[in-house]
Amino acid sequence: MDEHRSTLPFADVLIEDGRIARVGRGLRAPRGAQVIECRGRAVIPGLVQAHVHLCQVLFRNHADGLELLEWLSRRIWPFEAAHDARSLGLSARLGLAELLLGGTTAILDMATVRHTTAVLEAAVESGIRYTGGKCLMDVPGNPLAESKDAALRETEQLGLAWHGQENGRIRYALCPRFALSCTKALLTAVRDLSRRHGWLVHTHASENRTEVAFVREQTGVDNVAYFAQLGLQGPRLVLAHCVHLTAREMKQMARAGTHAVHCPGANLKLASGIAPVPRLLAAGVNVALGGDGAPCNNTLDAFHEMRLAATLHLPRFGHRAMPPAEVLAMATIRGARALGLESEIGSIEPGKRADIAVVDLSGPHCAPPGDDPHATLVYCARASDVTDVLVDGRAVVRNRKLLTLDAEKLARAAPAGLLRLLKSIDRGGAN
Ligand SMILES: [Zn+2]
User: Fold this and answer.
1) Peptide bond preceding 368: is omega within 30 degrees of 0, i.e. cis?
2) Phi and psi (nearest 5°) for 177?
3) 325 vs 2: CA distance, rounded Å
4) Ligand 1 center to 364 CA (angstroms)
5) Range of the domain at 238
6) What is the β-pairing status of strands 356-360 and 41-45?
7) Which of 81, 133, 240, 348 qualifies as a FRET site for 339, CA 20 to 30 Å off?
């Protein structure tokens, strides 16, 4: 996924000290090197999902059949409020296991309001490249809201403690939930913190028509325009969804360098709509991909999102609107750009960090191979075709087995973890 989107058949990738040293045919493995045989497989940049919620994975299959605002108030917020550090750690590890086994090596996450450290610790343990932070909500009327000052104090402390940990693999992001759950004063302070520390701002915008109408009613302007008015725009701002945007907002985003994250699976399941991705790309907006939450998708499989992104827009924009190489770019180099890591990850090029996924394309659902491996990856491949995953040159998945977490044990622990959470909600308690 270099700038030419080039592919190199029968090549080798040499990794030294966590970085890609050389790419080419017939490279010799130095003495003592570990060799991963990838014959018949595609070696691709590790997939990047620029919008996920690890804290929600434990609610998968328990929030179906609802639209966004009801889904939040009736299910997600009570669930998130019931989390303690233990249930949150389980939720995060479950999601991290799914992500890594499916070839996702970098995420931009939004944690919940409390116990953020449990998510950050899980990210460290899993080996994933993590950017994310505590969710910020200071508009009262829900079980997660807290005071602006408490929210800001905690988020800054977390950022100062965690940003740059693990040789830069863990990075902090400021995560106001969305315009409707944040006061103007909170958003303004988030802008200032982002400027002071250089941290990303990760939020939701223009996902659902009712949300957009409320934002307009409360602020007098459209969602993206409102953020821009507050000085929240530019390359450090990542907006999930962007389903209902005006042409003016798209231009504004492109001009400022604000990133959009397309989450087609979640947008369909919550009946939110279809983001005008070909128009965003044509306007010059960087668009990344994300699975969003397990309870609104209900999968964190990047291949599923790629296939949706590649096909969903064609009836409206024509059969050439979403070329497979462009879609794979959204899940790799464009995702890296949204995370501010374009010079470090997102393509297999010498000098970059070795975040790599190996995909077995020999299964019956991929045969026979066509001329364009991007097309096979985007249209045919599945998360279960990923055999090996490296982050910073370290193997986290080998031969379809996750080395850093016990995936089977986590799946077995999930029902009891969820049950504890449901009991806590029944008691009316927030943890
Ligand atoms: Zn989300």
Assistant:
1) yes
2) -60, -60
3) 11
4) 34
5) 1-431
6) antiparallel
7) 81
Provide the residues around ligand 1 (an ion) whose CB is within 5 A.
Answer: 292
Going from the Cα of 176 to the center of ligand 1, the distance in angstroms, rounded, reads 11
Q: How many domains are there within the chain?
A: 1
CA–centroid distance, 201 to ligand 1, in Å, is 13
CATH number at residue 140: 3.20.20.140
The residue ranges of DSSP E strands in 156-218, in sequence order, are 170-176, 200-205
- Distance (angstroms) between ligand 1 centre and the Cα of 369 equals 35
CA of 292 from ligand 1 middle (Å) equals 5
Residue 386 C-alpha to ligand 1 middle, in angstroms?
25
263 alpha carbon to ligand 1 midpoint, in Å?
Answer: 9
Q: How confident is the prediction along the chain (431 residues), in pLDDT tens digits per residue? A: 887 888 888 899 999 999 999 999 999 999 999 999 999 899 999 999 999 999 999 999 988 898 888 989 988 999 999 999 999 999 999 999 999 999 999 999 999 999 999 999 999 999 999 999 999 999 999 999 999 999 999 999 999 999 999 999 999 999 999 999 999 999 999 999 999 999 999 999 999 999 999 999 999 999 999 999 999 999 999 999 999 999 999 999 999 999 999 999 999 999 999 999 999 999 999 999 999 999 999 999 999 999 999 999 999 999 999 999 999 999 999 999 999 999 999 999 999 999 999 999 999 999 998 899 999 999 999 999 999 999 999 999 999 999 999 999 999 999 999 999 999 888 876 66
- The tokens for 354 are 């070795």
Strands (E) across 263-418 are located at: 287-289, 356-360, 386-391, 394-398, 401-402
